[in-house]
Amino acid sequence: SESTEPLSAPPIILAIGGIDECNCREPVAEFGADGVATIRTVMQSPDPREAVRRMKKAMQQIQVDDDNESGTNELSETK
């Protein structure tokens, strides 16, 4: 039977499929996704660590852009 209780939190939305360092920002910045998931870009890279670093840098730029629009310049770093 279906539960009629409200969910405690909205679902997390991740974009998957064809994600790379050139387009990883778009699903989050343009369409409101919570994040992205990628395998091929990292695993097929000659330097997977560098591929992840570039994608992480691109994703962090979303926060900088949002902060600049709201008048702050803080960047939250996750490790």
Give the assembly state of these chains: single chain
Q: State the strand order across the main sheet.
A: 1-2
Please state the CA-atom Rg, rounded to the nearest Å. Answer: 16 Å
The description of the largest β-sheet is: 2 strands, parallel
Q: What proportion of the residues form beta strands (DSSP E)?
A: 5-15%
Uncertain regions spanning at least 5 consecutive residues? 72-79
Structural class: mainly alpha
Distance between the termini: 41 Å
Pattern of helices and strands: EHEHH
Overall pLDDT level: 83
Q: What would you note in describing this structure?
A:
This protein has three helices and two strands. It has 79 residues and is mainly α. The protein has a two-stranded parallel sheet with strand order 1-2.
Task: Write the topology of this structure.
Elements: E1 14-16, H1 26-29, E2 35-37, H2 40-43, H3 48-70
Parallel strand pairs: 1-2
